[in-house]
Every structure is written in structure tokens, then in C-alpha cells.
Amino acid sequence: MNTRVAYPTVCLVASALVFGLMAEAACASFEFATAPKLPTLTAVTLNAKSLTVNTTMTNFSVIDTRGTKSGWNVTVAGQSGTGKSAVFAQYCPTAKCGADAEGYVGGGQKMAANSLTLNSTGAKFTGGTGSAPTLQCSAACKVDTATAVKIASAATGGAGESTWTTTGFSATSLALAVPTTLRALLNGEVYRVNILWTLNSGP
Predict the structure, then answer these.
(1) Helix intervals (H) in the chain
(2) Which pTM was predicted?
(3) Every domain of the chain and the residues it spans
């Protein structure tokens, strides 16, 4: 007799906040032309085993017309504070989810920090002038971490006054490690994380 077991699925959502520095010089720009943004991760079918869920990082671009050639870098970190979570945590996306109100659920389920990583192997910056900026995550960079991690850098005196855009992120560039202990959520709730991307002056 064959028995079929239906394993529960969970949904994973990333919410991103982007912070860019505007250049002081008149008519000069220093900002994200297209801000980094994590895609919605695919649903996970739980089977009491450790799993890795992959998806493709979205492209982003930086415009720098300051004329200083002082370089720049992009960092990423999990964001904490009121109404935010630096790690994947139980979240109600509607006015009510059973007995839970909209927002993060107090005392709800959570995943460990550093569960989500970014690997930029094969990706690069294109479209600008001068020396291209570099992506820093040939070894996987932690994304949902409390400490900001540098994922891209333009050297001092290198990149010209222009817009640089990433391209070539692989289908496995984002990887989420799902533990055996992760529990399925009910009533339309999801696991959600807040991610902060920051554009900084200097390499």
C-alpha cells in the first residue's frame, strides 16, 4: 500500500530599504539609478530536511557624476527596529491572520541570522567609463546579518563620471539555507525580512 505524504509549504518575503547619498556639488548625482532589490523567494516545501532555496539577484545601478573620483561602495545588512526584522520572521501581511494582527508576530517563528547569502560569481558592472567597479561576493556574502557587508566597490580614481549597472547574476546567486526546524505558518502568514542597501562614498 502506497502512502502519500503532503509536506507543508512556507512563503518567504524580503522587504528592502535603500539609502543613497546625494552629492553636494550642484548638478552632480551620487545615488542608485536602479536600487538593489531582493526578488520574492520561492515557496519552500518542508520535509524535515535541510534545504537550500535559490533564486536570481536583481540587477542594480549606481550613478556618480560628482567629478571627484573618490570611489564608492554598496553595503547590505538586515534592518532592525520598530516594525522591522533583521532576520526572517513570522509576519502577517493582511489586517488579520487568525488571531494575529498585521505586522511581525510577537514571539513568532524566526530563522537564524545569516540564512541568506549572495554570490556574485559571473556577474559584473557594465555601461560606465574608466575602470569598472567590482562585485565583492565571489565567496558568498551574508545578507540578513546585523553587520553591514560590502557587496560592491569602485576604486578611488577608477570609475569615471557615469552610470554603472550590474549584469549576469546567476540563477543560484541568492541562496537561502532552510533548517530542519523551520515550521509552516497558517492563515496566510509568511517569513519576512527587512534588508537595508546603502550607497557610501569611498571604496
Answers:
(1) none
(2) 0.84
(3) 9-201
